[in-house]
Amino acid sequence: MTETSDLKLMSTTPATIAVPAEREEFGNSATLWIEPIHGWANLKLKELWEYRELLYFLVWRDVKVRYKQAALGAAWAILQPLLTMLIFSVIFGMFARVPSDGTPYPLFAFVALVPWNFFATSLTQSSNSVVGSANLITKVYFPRLAIPLASVLAGLVDFALSFVVLIGMMAYYRHAPTKHIVWLPVFLLLGLAASIGMGFWLSAMNVKYRDVRYVVPFLTQFWMYASPIIYPSSMIPVRYRTLYALNPMVGVVDGFRWALLGTKTGPGLAVAVSAAATLLFLLGGALYFRRMETEFADIV
Fold this sequence. Notes:
The two termini are 44 Å apart. The chain is mostly helical. Mean pLDDT is 83; it is low at 1-27. Strand 2 and strand 3 form a beta hairpin. It is globular, with a radius of gyration of 22 Å. The longest helix has 27 residues, at 146-172. Helices cover 61% and strands 6% of the residues. The protein has a 3-stranded mixed sheet, with no helix packed on it. It folds into 2 domains: 1-41, no CATH class; 43-282 and 293-299, no CATH class. The protein contains 13 helices and 3 strands, in the order βββααααααααααααα. Helix 4 (105-127) runs parallel beside helix 8.
């Protein structure tokens, strides 16, 4: 005896097929219900895990496309922070004499630029990820969270390449990592969470408001000067440091310098505030993205 099934679609828009079906079985028949999302949807992280193979291929696609037909290819992942470090070293280290917490300024700046470039690149790539995947979104169902997530994870390749250069610079300046290096993965995860959170916010907003792609370069530039990339956090007056630490990248950059260079910016109130702000960014961004994804197929 063959089993029959009835499919009932509760909405005409493709985006409503964003909720996993609930299945009710009566004897030999099965009814598949697909309903639109109402209110603030839950994150459906289990569903994202079930599509982990697709996430892997999306990451691999983004890695291959990023430097396709570029003359220098992946070398840009090294040249970009390296050239930025040279400019900062001349202007802020040599001429402006910005303090560097007792370490050579080029090394001081590059340690900060490694996680910062990962974050900045994630903002740029993830903000356009959903719009750039319009053909995929309108044709097949899969967890849409995978799109900006893949764009951020693809940036880890660039991070790894620039981190190799950082190790070489530390050897050149004869600056051995401190025992605090065991905490480095924690600060990397903190930076990854901040990147994913902002990626969710910007990619969802960019579908409805295409002005976002013009705002992101300005936002990235402003964010860099609002983070301790060029200068140490110790230059911020004590009474403003808690407010300053609401910037998620404060905890990430200070953590990298503490773990690798032994500066006095280790885990404390500022890092705890940055970590809390990062979690809020991540959770809020994921919820906002899930709430907006019902409109993606109609707008994109």
